[in-house]
Amino acid sequence: MELNNNIKSIAIGSFDGIHLGHQALIKQAEAVVIIERNRSVMTTGYRRVEYIQRPCFFYHFDKIKSLSAKAFIQTLSEDFPQLESIVVGYDFGFGYKKEGDTSLLQELFEGEVIVIAEVKHKEVSVHSRSIKEFIKNGEIRLANELLNRNYTITGEVIEGQGIGKKELVPTLNLNVLNHLLPKEGVYATKTLIDDTWLRSVSFFGHRVTTDGSFAVETHILDKDIGVVRGNIELEFIAFIRENQKFKGLDALKSAIKEDIEKAKELTL
């Protein structure tokens, strides 16, 4: 890391999701140290920078996981020589096998340690683990409230099976990597194409009525978008229904029409 002699306060954490709790930490610091891990996440590293709006520095977990608590604090002091305060959450752990907690941090660091208490929203603890569970369970609206924004993923447009355009409705098929995906089913969404957010309805899951393969598909409402290439973003608004097997394409098409009308209501 390049030394930045002007930074006197930092917030430390994984900041996966940049939720309400994370935002409470970030407000208290000049810069943010993100502990990055290689795993399925709510918000990939480069997107976190967009949401944080503070200078960001990345410590890759694989490179620091063997450091003792004392060595980790020494690394921070070397990277931020003018450091006066560190902001962390109440459940912050650091050092080899998380041997350090907020109490040890206060002992080892000579400056000020600001510990942010547990943040709750509607009596629900705002924590990355709980938000991930809400997303996995399709509770998108609650997850969005705790994130203080709509949950968003990025995917590359790929070739689909071709049935949608011919027999059902045209869809964009996506290859999504390194993102936490919601439970299988249909969602009201918005899709970002060419810097414009368009209303959409999206399916995540195994195509049990047709070929049984797993797919991420989005149908754009109210507009014929033609050929789309590259990466696009999906923003989740609400869960519509569970994934289910239909007797045939006619029954599936009828259900999709209902999904479209529901998505229109939810994305007004």
Structure in words:
The protein is α/β, with parallel strands linked by helices and 268 residues long. It has helices spanning 20-26, 45-52, 61-64, 69-79, 102-108, 128-136, 140-147, 163-167, 249-266; strands at 9-13, 31-36, 56-60, 85-89, 112-116, 120-121, 124-125, 152-158, 172-175, 185-193, 196-206, 214-220, 231-242. It has 2 domains: 9-129, Rossmann fold (3-Layer(aba) Sandwich); 151-266, Elongation Factor Tu (Ef-tu), domain 3 (Beta Barrel), CATH 2.40.30.30. The strands form 3 sheets. It has a 6-stranded antiparallel β-barrel. It has a 5-stranded parallel sheet with strand order 3-2-1-4-5, sandwiched between helices. The protein has a two-stranded antiparallel ribbon with strand order 6-7. Helix 6 (128-136) runs antiparallel to helix 7 (140-147). The longest helix has 18 residues, at 249-266. It is elongated.
What is the rounded distance between the termini? Answer: 45 Å
Overall CATH class of the largest domain: Alpha Beta
Low-confidence stretches: none
Mean pLDDT: 91
What is the tally of helical segments? 9
